[in-house]
Design brief:
By secondary structure, the chain is α/β, with parallel strands linked by helices. The protein contains ten helices and twelve strands.
Amino acid sequence: MAEVLERYVGRIAPSPTGALHLGNVRTFMIAWLRTRSLGGKMIFRMEDLDHPRDKPGAAAAAVEDLKWLGFDWDEEYVQSERRAIYREALAKLGDRVYPCVCSRRDVEAAQSAPHDGEQLRYPGTCRGRFASWSDAYRFLNPGPRSPVPAPRIPCWRFLVDPGETVSFEDVFAGAFSQDVAATLGDFPLARDEDGAGYTLACTVDDIAMGVTEVVRGDDLLAATPAQILVARALGDSPPRYCHVPLVVGRDGRRLAKRHGDTRISSFRARGQTPEEIIGFLASSCGWAEDGERISLRELLPRFDFATIPHVPFMV
């Protein structure tokens, strides 16, 4: 019997927390070229579950900017429309999850060693503390329900066994290993009763959508072992991961307002063309000459993972 070859399935997954900028587009460009160069299927997923930070109109604007730049995709999903799927996955995790009422300040105070401000180890304070999400909610909001002020919401945490370590080979970054128990402890899955939050939703969606490889920024490399543990707990195999360097400002930090206006909408307003923007980003990967104007599709025969520098692209 002939061997059945796996069809590559990639994805791009913007969040409507702000305008699309050069950093987003460079990563999406690499993901799109990787998928299309392999004859794969491209998934578009709007990750709109971070409601407090979501900006009105940002989702539609991101889609418009991406299409203007030449991106296309074969299937489209919106996470806020998939809550029932996350609720089902949360139930399937059973006693591997529990509600937690600890604030970030509580977790910071519980640290036994200095930390970098990003990854905090959770010591399991709320393990076995509440019988249900509702009990945790009532603990945080003991008074009558009222829209003002906004209620405090518990988060779901994933119970990590002592010594639980995850090792994997990243397609771009290479070997990576993390003692999840020692580094993160019981990590948060979602601050939502239905489990509609980044770690759970992203993991569930990548599996459900058949994504074979995730290409994304290397700021998420350290978050990957948690997603792998969730996939395994659900009885599924995670996709391959490929973490590429970010676009950063002159201070070495990821792009933000302090670095000036790098929004795609601003370049459009100034009359710049998609070919100028794509050419500029492609030159950072070794696929175009400085100042060359080129379309996304014209880059396909030039795409080569090996030429992407293993350092951030500074603008």
